[in-house]
Design a protein that fits this description.
16% strand; 391 residues; four-stranded antiparallel β-sheet; TIM Barrel; alpha/beta; globular
Length: 391
């Protein structure tokens, strides 16, 4: 069974040949180097051509104009996923840089977020960190150049990934990934200013509608061009709860999320939502909006009820769970602890489909090779269907 078929079977709550695997981000040069795959390809490398030219979209257009040729380049970047049998590979179709910071430390993206490069001292892994928004007022936001879902670089980015998938005999499943409606929206303002904007209904309605319309149209374009799944980056909460009152999500976010899911489903496309944090208060809203799969079911929230096993008991068959091995466990836990938890995830969640093996956030530089391999080893040994893992 190839990777697209495997993933889509699981999301459809059918049993594939083995449990699919995924990581929303993989920032760990040590692990990549162990498998003999390139550790470059970060935005730091991507921005290097900018000497004397700050027009990111011009460079992207030139780079992706021949998407078939770009697909050849992406094969090398995706090789790591094939070697460790991570089925889903993401390709970005938004959140592109718009301006490079004068000191070369990072960039301002098209959502108005200041993003800076940070280097992990252990193995020099480059991490991109959020450092605030550039909007100082709602009026400044209104004067910002709006996002264009029809910009050809977005579709060409996905088509290049799709071409790489084809060249790799569908051993990977390339999924276009875009910002959603909430997280990257508020980050352009910063939380303090955004909290004032959202108190004014007309302003809040406009801000959310801008991102909702953009995301809706982009998902339609991607699905019309063969995308069978789209990932939305859209953190709704943090470890102690939601960013907003649940009613604010129901007023401004979920109506757009439902339109996006409906449009995707009409085109035989699935929606994978990545949202960190404690989502217990809006979990049913996420399901009712039509989200097909949810990542990462963060295991380290303060709410003991936001537990993947409890959620599975209540919502089994209504949504696909993607997660949730703690990154802390993968950094400092014992091998036995990792293996037992990984076996429990597969034993309790995978039968009947509806589960994708993954960490509870991402593979960061602190994750050690032996612990990462311990988790993957369990999936390799026990993840074949029919699932049969003794307690």
């Amino acid at each position: 069974m190839d990777a697209p078929t495997r993933v889509l079977a699981a999301v459809n709550h059918e049993e594939p040949d083995r449990v699919p695997a995924f990581e929303s981000a993989f920032t760990n040069n040590t692990i990549k180097a162990h498998y003999g795959t390139p550790v470059k390809g970060s935005f730091m490398d991507l921005l290097s051509p900018f000497a004397g030219n700050n027009n990111y979209f011009e460079i992207m257009h030139n780079s992706y104009k021949n998407y078939k040729k770009k697909g050849d380049v992406l094969v090398n970047q995706y090789e790591f996923h094939r070697r460790v049998k991570l089925d889903i590979v993401l390709c970005g179709v938004s959140l592109f840089p718009r301006m490079i910071l004068d000191d070369g430390s990072g960039y301002i993206d098209e959502y108005g977020r200041i993003m800076k490069f940070e280097k992990y001292p252990g193995d020099s892994t480059v991490i991109i960190g959020y450092h605030g928004g550039i909007f100082k007022s709602y009026e400044q936001y209104e004067n910002w150049e709006p996002l264009d879902p029809y910009d050809e670089v977005r579709l060409n980015s996905y088509l290049a990934g799709k071409e790489a998938q084809k060249k790799m005999d569908n051993e990977i499943f390339v999924v276009p990934a875009t910002a959603g409606i909430m997280e990257d929206n508020w980050q352009g303002f910063g939380l303090a200013l955004f909290s004032r904007v959202i108190r004014k209904h007309k302003q809040a309605q406009k801000v959310f509608a801008d991102k909702g319309k953009f995301t809706l149209e982009l998902v339609k374009i991607l699905a019309d061009n063969g995308a069978k799944m789209v990932l939305l980056w859209d953190d709704y909460g943090f470890k102690n709860g939601l960013f907003l009152n649940p009613e604010k999500y129901r007023t401004y976010v979920f109506p757009w999320l439902k339109k996006i899911c409906d449009a995707a489903h009409k085109r035989d496309c699935k929606i994978l939502l990545h949202s960190d944090g404690d989502l217990i208060e809006i979990f049913e809203d996420i399901i009712n909006s039509g989200v097909d799969a949810l990542n990462p079911i963060e295991p380290t929230t303060a709410n003991l009820e936001f537990d993947i096993f409890k959620l599975n008991e209540k919502y089994n068959g209504k949504i696909t769970f993607v997660g949730n091995i703690s990154p802390q466990m993968l950094s400092t836990g014992s091998i036995i602890e990792i293996e037992e938890y990984s076996k429990r995830l597969i034993r309790e969640l995978a039968p009947g489909g509806g589960y994708i093996f993954s960490s509870g956030h991402s593979i960061n530089p602190a994750v050690t090779l032996d612990r990462f391999q311990a988790a993957l080893g369990v999936r390799e040994k026990f993840g074949k269907y029919p699932i049969n893992i003794p307690k």
